[in-house]
Each structure stands twice: as C-alpha cells, then as structure tokens.
Amino acid sequence: MYRESLKKYLDDLASRKPAPGGGSAAALAGAIGAALLSKVANFTIGKDKYKAVEQEMAGILNHCEELREDFNSLCSEDARAYKKFSDAVKLPRGRERQKKIEQALKEATAVPLQVCKDAHRAVKLCLPLAQKGNANLITDVGIGAMLLECAFQSALLNVEINLKDIKDDRFILEVREVLEPMEKELVSINQEVSSEVERRKGVK
C-alpha cells in the first residue's frame, strides 16, 4: 500500500485524483481485517490459559500476516491496473485499441478478484479464532470478519463492473464460477463467526 501516512492516503482517496479509488479501499479493508486477526492470535500466543492452542494460533498468525502483506500490495496494484486501462482508452480508435482495452480490463479484474480470494482465505481463519482465541479480544474477531466480508463484497462489485465491458464470455464464466461458491461459503462462515462472538462476549 502507500508507504505514507494514513492521512495522506485518505486525502488522496477523497481527492479528484483517479487513484486510489474503491478498489484500493477494498484491499485496505482486507488488510485491516487481517491485521485484527493477527492481533487476536498475538494476544492468544504465550498465555497459559491458551497453551493448548498455541501452535494452532501461531499457524493462523503466519497466514494472517501473509494475507495482510498481500492486501497491502493489492492497494497499489489497483492503481497500476487503472492506469493501464486509462492509457488503453486514450489510444486511437481501432482494433488494436479494443484489444488493449480488453486486456487491460482483464488485468484490472484480476486485482479485485485476488482481493476476494484473499478475503475468503482470511475469513476461514476467523472461526478458529472466534472459538479458541483470547476471549478478551472476541469483538476484534467479529470486526475483522466484518471488514473482510466488506473487502470481499466491495471487490466483487469492481469485478462485476469490469466484466460488464469484457467481450470474452469464457473469461466471464470462469471468473463467476470461482466467485459464486466462494461468496456463499464466506457468508456462511461469517454467520458462524457472528454466533460464536455472541456466545463468547461475556467470557473472560
């Protein structure tokens, strides 16, 4: 993502600059969600009360940190993908221009598609954290899960916008075949996470 302050990023997000935009914001939501899951794992590891799940939590922490870094990179990749599309649109009208636009749209679709994949992977880590993680941070698990679902749905919106202008029907079908079952599973897992958060809210 931006190696700058959060204020600078938000100022740019609010400005008339073409990027960063919604795609970058979706990836940032995912990064924040993954960071919250890492926090829960970090506060579980090293506690006598949670000794039995320490190894599992260490594995979850590693996965969360990998995903956080990937989301971070996707914040910047979204801006690069937008620039490539913008450059293609400015080309003289003709077959070559249309070919470049189609390719740029496919590449632009790949970024939010990866955000969806990462959010789906991260949400799978929420349930064991909600069930076995430090109960003092149970709301952090719930908020992390919500942010990750937000990242998924926001990125999905960008995927659909791009698919609308892509002519390759096979490409469109392949993308939707990946996303549809993923969305159903993510929503189902988050319902379980929400129930577990409610159950453990009063546990200390």
Helix and strand run: HHHHHH
CATH T-level fold name: Four Helix Bundle (Hemerythrin (Met), subunit A)
CATH class: Mainly Alpha
**Major sheet, described briefly?**
none
Word description of this protein:
With 204 residues, the chain is mainly alpha-helical. It has a single domain, classed as Formiminotetrahydrofolate cyclodeaminase monomer, up-and-down helical bundle (Four Helix Bundle (Hemerythrin (Met), subunit A), Up-down Bundle), CATH 1.20.120.680. It is built from six helices and no strands. Helix 3 packs antiparallel against helix 4. The radius of gyration is 19 Å and the shape is elongated. The two termini are 36 Å apart. The mean pLDDT is 94.
Topology:
Blueprint: H1 6-14, H2 22-44, H3 54-89, H4 95-132, H5 138-165, H6 169-200
Summarize the structure.
The chain is mainly α and 204 residues long. 81% of the residues lie in helices and 0% in strands. The protein has a single domain (21-199), classed as Up-down Bundle (Four Helix Bundle (Hemerythrin (Met), subunit A)).
Features:
mainly alpha, 204 residues, single chain
